Amino acid sequence: MQVVVQLLLILPFSCLGSNSQGVEFLEANKKKEGVITLDSGLQYKVLRTGNGDAHPLVSSKCSCHYAGSLIDGTEFDSSYKRSAPSTFAPNQVIKGWTEALQLMVEGDKWELYIPSELAYGAHGRPPKIPGNSVLIFTIELLKIQGKSIPAARSCASSDRVPPIVDGASFIFIGGKKIPWNGPKTQVTSPVFDNKTGTRTIIGELSKMDADTAVEAAQAAKKAWDQGQGEWPLASLAKRISAIESYLSVLSERRTEIIETLMWEIAKNTNDATKEFDRTVAFAQAVIQSLRTENEIDIYAQEFTQIGNVRAIVKRGPIGITLMVAPFNYPLNEMYAMMIPALLTGNIVILKLPATGALPHILAIDALMSTLPKGVVNYVTGKGRETLPAIMSTGIIDALGFIGSSKGADALIKAHPHPHRLKVFSQLEGKNMGIVFPDADLDLTVKQLMLGALSYNGQRCTAIKLILVHDDIADALVSALANAIEALPRGLPWDEGVQITPLPDADKPAYLTELVQDAITKGAKIMNSRGAQTQQSLFHPALVAYLTPDMRLFHEEQFGPLVAVAKFSSIDHVIQIAKNSWSGQQVAIFTESDAPGASTLIDAFSTIVGRANINLQCSRGPDVLPFSGRRSSAMGTMSVTSAVRAFSVEVVVATHPKDTSLSSELLSSSKLLTSLSSVASLKN
């Protein structure tokens, strides 16, 4: 047997690191086009992409062709020259090969650049491989001869043209695109460019400073005009017509926006499509509820005799509203606040998220063509710089905030008159899934998978802590581990993909911290690929069994970590809930009330806003109220609740004798005229 094959089949000693020449080589090499560097230090370049659809298990035999050399070009072995491939399992070779092989599919041909610590270390393998040597291998995976797992595509994209969205040559204030020559921020995708080995550039954003952000607030103030602006005084019918026109024009860019969502935040095709369509459907549902005004308030259609007055109740705007939404639903979450606010006559300032801003840039032309100037204004740049500056002016009348409680608190404190600031917020959640011994295991696993890992677990409503009864714990964990490993991973547009790259470049490191903390305190990763990283792709990890001293037990992971802890009694579950900061939702899995489901519903009725039975936690359907307690929410989101959140009841009361005057007011006042009599409305 040839020397190198023998050496590859010997697991290496631990080592100190590469020699100085090797370090210099790797440092220069990682900057070369197409070279990708993994967290371990292993570098590789894709020479050919195979057609395989599976990765080998660490113990599966693989048939490979390879050639190995030192960095000076000295070749020490080649199966090509022997005209015979070699066969070995990933766990039988040096660490660099072990890692690379598990990322490859049949037909892949890569060039590996392996640091000494992932090869033969300080000892080397004399006489051909000196100690502390960096090695270069060309390797082809010809055939997986053992078990395999579904392929996790590299985050590199070789054949799809990325969008390029210009959000840096202008700022959108006062209904105009104002030329911008100031600082800019490059927008990159979590999908890596296979030519550069770095995140793909998909656009730019203007980077507004505090003073420019205040200009946006001043433009909003002008449009509001102390409540006497064109938009706040417009009739409901006119505002509905304008918003319907806006949605129609926006929908012309549906395909482009969906594509941008996939590139910028790595939502798969189905989820990106649902985000756009659900956003439009929500807006249309709000409009429909306003057409039947009694769905929002009683006494809204006509003057009604109540005691010694005749009264009608309408809804008016609060004023200038600052809205902040997160990256995970950049369109849907923002529009769930913005559309009801606009329909009720408010003026809006949108602080675009650093990640997820590009779909909003694509909406500017539609806004300009359908809404009066200054009704919607954009702020870009660092939130910590721009948002406090806006709040400190005192211009803001209402805050719509979806994000962290810490961020919400800071903004509220920045307002000089917080008593007059109306706040709507949807914040963090550490939703629990509680599994009783009699739960339908198949149904439970399906719902827990949806709840914990839909969009990589990056949802405020995600199930972030599973509490399972001792009697069923091992069976549930085993089933979850199998289900997690079967999830297709890859690029957002890959057919059937469920796990995609993470938009936040720092998120894999944070998730790894949580996992390591749990492991050092006794927990284990229960699935084979759990917590492995591949560029911006983080393989979902099932971590069990957690205890309260572990960070993952309490912190909101907001990513693909499935956290499991055990419980022995209902009192145990209630105590955990009592001690939690979270107050959003709970999911209870049981086939009967015998284990105490009703007891938990009663207990959680004062802790969370929604209890789900044999269902994952979720916001929808949108006609249902989405509320929360504690540090999870302030206010309620739904088709009708959002209208209430961003408006104020306006009562007009007349003397009971003024029946003719009441009729005249109903036909002439923009506020009072009902939509049913819109034909006679004076716009």
From TrEMBL:
InterPro entries given in the database record: Ald_DH/histidinol_DH, Ald_DH_C, Ald_DH_CS_CYS, Ald_DH_N, Aldehyde_DH_dom, Aldehyde_DH_Superfamily, PPIase_dom_sf, PPIase_FKBP_dom
Keyword line: Isomerase, Oxidoreductase, Rotamase, Signal
Annotated ranges, domain PPIase FKBP-type: 59-145
Gene3D superfamilies reported in the protein's UniProt record: 3.10.50.40, Aldehyde Dehydrogenase, Chain A, domain 1, Aldehyde Dehydrogenase, Chain A, domain 2
EC assignment: 5.2.1.8
GO BP: protein folding
Lineage top rank: taxon: Eukaryota
Record's keyword annotation contains Repressor: no
Signal sequence residues: 1-17
A Pfam family annotated for this UniProt entry: FKBP_C
UniProt catalytic activity: [protein]-peptidylproline (omega=180) = [protein]-peptidylproline (omega=0)
Molecular function terms, GO-annotated: oxidoreductase activity, acting on the aldehyde or oxo group of donors, NAD or NADP as acceptor; peptidyl-prolyl cis-trans isomerase activity
PANTHER family attached to this UniProt entry: SUCCINATE-SEMIALDEHYDE DEHYDROGENASE, MITOCHONDRIAL
Family, similarity comment: Belongs to the FKBP-type PPIase family.
Protein's name according to its UniProt entry: peptidylprolyl isomerase
UniProt source species: Aureoumbra lagunensis
